[in-house]
Amino acid sequence: MFILKKKAEPEKQIWNHIKRHYQGEKVAVVGVKKGLPQTFLRNKQVIFYESLTGESLPAEGKQFLERFAKNYTAFVFYLDCPTEIAEQLIDTGRALGVRVTVTVKEQVA
Q1: DSSP for residue 107
Q2: How large is the C-alpha radius of gyration of the chain?
Q3: pLDDT of amino acid 24
Q4: Rounded to whole angstroms, how far apart are CA atoms 43 and 38?
Q5: Which of 13, 34, 61, 78 has its CA 20 to 30 A from that of 55?
Q6: Alpha carbon 45 to chain centroid distance?
Q7: Residues of the chain falling short of pLDDT 50
Q8: What is the enclosing helix (H) or strand (E) of 57?
Q9: For 50-60, what is each residue's pLDDT tens digit?
Q10: What is the CATH number of domain 2-104?
Q11: CA 55, 53, 37 angle in degrees (round to 5)?
């Protein structure tokens, strides 16, 4: 279970994370409509779902995980959400037996 702070090149950061932690697993990248890094990751043949509206991320994420947990072993939520929401999604994934990564807003000190 991971929380990633998005950096300058989030597409490469996500791809490196998938290669390092989810090699050989069936991974789905999930995001808010029109919010996913299309070109770079699509060329890597990663499965995408732009299913979330962003209105209630914990509820939408939970519903998505419950619906697709049988199909995938890992999920990457590309959201830019607060850490509290990320932790809720990770807990939901843990309860369903799937691995979850969530991107959060990078906090500037």
Answers
A1: P
A2: 13
A3: 81
A4: 9
A5: 13
A6: 16
A7: 108-109
A8: helix 57-68
A9: 778 888 889 99
A10: 3.40.50.300
A11: 125
